[in-house]
Specification:
alpha/beta, Rossmann fold, GMP Synthetase, Chain A, domain 3
Length: about 475
């Protein structure tokens, strides 16, 4: 990952509280819409609250926290600032030095990659369990990395645990930092230590422009993480042929043709009726949250399978949220005996099965071979520009006059709607307001007629269009 800030990697064995620490450092609680009193105190001590203006979103991240070991599998990044010192925090999977599973082995590779780019390592241990054999081995592994190490003894929730935690001096590292993520205790002191250790950075570097945020969504095992790996040219995301490999929504920043993107790899979204695991329920909610926070939603379909009801449900949700979107038809390389009719037949099938996304561009790609994968970002940029387009009012009214004269709105209960004036009131998504008489009698077929002609005249490919009415 490219970043101009020093990187701080959080590592440790599974279930010691790494993601909870990540959440505390990034300023998030389990309810991101509220800020607790303790968090207000934290902000007052020097943490820079994310600045949110109209039309923008907080850049904060928060990781899924669950008692199940190994919840975090991929690297999760977030930019933070403490006492005017910016840095990037990285949440990693649990370090298991004796993996007995190929997926766990892939997690270790992700941790090694985070260590390689880190300026500082936060080694998290659990005060309740004391020193475990794996802690000793992990400590040796970290010392071999020859990076500054800050030992964080977490879950020190009472004076009893603080007294018992003295044994962690045996690890032979620097003075331990005592924290309790549950009680938000020790986080300020830890952040002070972090900025004290980190190297100085060039204060003249300007903030990068806001990245276009793209959520990669779809059912499990359709190839979302493989597509991202192909875009990055590295095994950034853990890929496994078992569904559900990605458990958290992971943000990756990349630059394509000098345009910054923030790509969010999400957990596979299964039907609510088949989810019987609390952890999966949480991760699916995070995927839904990622769609809501995105600029462009990329719905990935597996062309070797029929479009499922869950694909339709996700597509409808994207449209209802008013998000710009792209359909990626993955595994196109597995379709054999293609001829001149294959592509049009697939297009017709998608139109019939996903009618609410008929305006959405389709990219036929292969994560395995890299075929048309970079076209995803190029198409996302085009769609995003359409999403942000504002049409001058005179041009809109010229079109409305033409449409009204060609096909007046039909009468409803003896009264015909009179559409007098149209203006665009919002972008993202493009939203229009029409003034007139009896506008409450405009029927859906006529509104579709207006929307289709607005698209034909002005574009708006890949983005939903909203029309509202006001009596004048």
């Amino acid at each position: 990952m490219e970043t101009g800030h020093p990187i701080v990697a959080i590592v440790g064995r599974p279930n010691v509280g790494k993601s909870s620490l990540f959440n505390r450092i990034t300023g998030n609680s389990h309810q991101p819409s509220t800020v607790s009193g303790q968090e207000e105190n934290l902000f007052a001590e020097g943490f820079q609250k994310p600045k949110v203006s109209k039309g923008s979103r907080s850049s904060r991240r928060f990781a899924v926290v669950h008692d199940t070991p190994g919840v975090t599998r991929d690297r999760n990044y977030a930019d933070v600032e403490w006492r005017d010192r910016p840095f990037t925090i990285v949440d990693t999977g649990g370090l298991d030095v004796d993996p007995d599973d190929r997926l766990i082995d892939n997690v270790q590779l992700q941790v090694d990659a985070a260590l390689a780019e880190a300026s500082l390592v936060l080694f998290v241990v659990d005060a309740r369990t004391g020193i475990m054999p794996h802690d000793l081995i992990v400590a040796d592994k970290l010392r071999a990395a020859d990076k500054p190490i800050c030992l964080v003894v977490n879950k020190v929730d009472s004076e009893q645990f603080r007294n018992e935690a003295a044994e962690f001096y045996r690890l032979g590292l620097e003075e331990p930092m005592w924290t309790s993520c549950v009680q938000n205790d020790g986080i300020r002191e830890l952040l002070d230590r972090v900025v004290e250790i980190l190297p100085e950075t060039d204060e003249t570097v300007h903030h990068a422009p806001a990245a276009i945020k793209i959520a990669i969504v779809g059912r499990p095992n359709v190839g979302k993480s493989s597509l991202i790996n192909n875009l990055l040219g590295e095994e950034r995301m853990i890929v496994d042929d078992r569904p559900g490999t990605t458990r958290d929504a992971v943000n990756i920043r990349i630059v394509h043709d000098n345009i910054p993107f923030e790509v969010v790899d999400t957990a596979g979204m299964r039907r609510k009726s088949v989810i019987n695991d609390e952890l999966e329920s949480v991760t699916v909610k995070r995927a839904i949250h990622s769609i809501r926070q995105s600029d462009v939603a990329v719905l990935v379909l597996d062309v070797t399978q029929d479009v499922a009801q869950q694909d339709k449900t996700i597509a409808n949700f994207i449209e209802r949220q008013g998000k710009a979107s792209i359909l990626v038809m993955n595994k196109w390389d597995l379709i054999v005996n293609k001829d001149n009719t294959t592509h049009p037949e697939f297009m017709d099938t998608i139109d019939a099965q996903l009618p609410r996304l008929g305006y959405v561009p389709r990219v036929f790609a292969s994560a395995l071979t890299g075929q048309r994968v970079t076209q995803i970002l190029a198409t996302a940029l085009e769609v995003y520009r359409e999403y942000c387009t504002h049409i001058p009012t005179p041009a809109l009214n010229d079109l409305l006059l033409e449409l009204r004269n060609a096909h007046p709105p039909p009468r409803v209960k003896g009264a015909r709607p009179a559409l007098k004036y149209i203006t665009q009131v919002e972008t993202k998504p493009p939203t229009f307001l029409i003034f007139g008489r009896n506008v409450h009698r405009v029927q859906q077929p006529y509104e579709s007629y207006l929307i289709n002609n607005i698209r034909e005249e002005f574009g708006f490919h890949g983005t939903p269009i909203r029309i509202f009415y006001r009596r004048s």
